[in-house]
Amino acid sequence: MPPKILLAAGPSENRSTHTALAPNPPPSHPPTPISSTLRVRIHIASWTGTPAPPTSGSSYFTHPLHRSDKFSIQFFFTPHEDVPGDELVISNTFDKPIRERLPVFFGAAWAALRWVDPGIQGEPYADCPEVHSRVLGAVNFLDVRGEVAGREEGVGVEEGAGEGEEREEEAPVIEEHMPADIPGTPAERRKHFLYYHQKEFTFRKGVEYRWDFCNGMMDFSDFSVKIPGLGFKFEMTKYWDQQPLRFVLKNINTGEVYGVVQFDYDQGLGLNDGSVIDGVSLEPGDAVADNG
């Protein structure tokens, strides 16, 4: 039986700053602010963790772009200052070593991940492991219409504005929208930014950028990972030491953290002040506290 997992988010890696966050919000629900620069919307197929989802997420997972996906974090990022394109990353960080817990086939799995995301970098065998990918060359769908509007008007697009605007009955999907001088499909854009052009792009102050980081590898119904190209999946519970699994948006050069989405072992402790977020109220003991 998979463990009970808590989903929470906040402005830093410190648990005490996190608030429980329910996945699969209604399509009409706006993204949830988790810091002064970042809002998120999360979809997880067959979620049985805490908090309980208000919907099944079917409007997302039945969309033609996401029928093979099981997991998604949508980011809505508005930086307070310019961020160079080669410095903005999504990172998985850990506080303690994981090398003793890695499966014997990890080398093959790591190679398969590098095949899916050639830009992934990091030190999984380090004392404080971290692996990361630059946003420009890694995310599945990237919408920079706020950048285009900002060039023309000095402001970003509003939520739901323009092509692809959301309506209550539609899936909350982020589609690829890039300037004319950048390849227009997700695969071409990732290739374009993989090695050579990241420094030419700037995430500009006050402009909202949206992207979807999604895949079909992580299955939270049985807490397993499907390894692309290897034809099998493994149960994470066999190798998990109950450290939080974090998705951190950060500046890889300065270390500044813009926001964190965290999957944690639900120890039945308490998080923040017992918190209400996204209209979801947790009963006492449904979340985690800052344990150091």
Features:
globular, 292 residues, seven-stranded antiparallel sheet, 13% helix, alpha+beta
The total beta strand count reads 19
Largest sheet geometry: 7 strands, antiparallel
Distance between the termini: 28 Å
* Gross geometry: globular
State the secondary-structure class: alpha+beta
Indicate the proportion of strand residues: 25-35%
Question: Numbering strands along the chain, what is their spatial order in the largest sheet?
Answer: 2-1-17-16-7-9-8
What is the helix/strand order?
EEEEHEEEHEEHEHHEEEEEEEEE
Poorly predicted residue ranges: 149-168, 269-292
Estimate the helix proportion, in percent: 10-25%
Q: Give the integer mean of the pLDDT values.
A: 81
Number of domains: 1
Q: How many DSSP H or I helices?
A: 5
How big is the Rg? 18 Å
Describe the model.
The protein is α+β, with helices and mostly antiparallel strands. It has one domain. Helices cover 13% and strands 28% of the residues. The protein has five helices and 19 strands. The chain has helices spanning 58-61, 106-116, 135-138, 145-153, 186-194; strands spanning 5-10, 19-20, 32-33, 38-44, 71-77, 83-84, 88-93, 121-123, 130-134, 141-143, 202-203, 209-215, 218-219, 224-227, 232-235, 245-251, 257-265, 276-277, 280-281. The strands form five sheets. A seven-stranded antiparallel beta sheet has the order 2-1-17-16-7-9-8. The longest helix is centred in the middle third of the chain and has 11 residues, at 106-116. The chain is globular and about 45 Å long. The protein starts with a strand and ends in an 11-residue tail after the last strand.
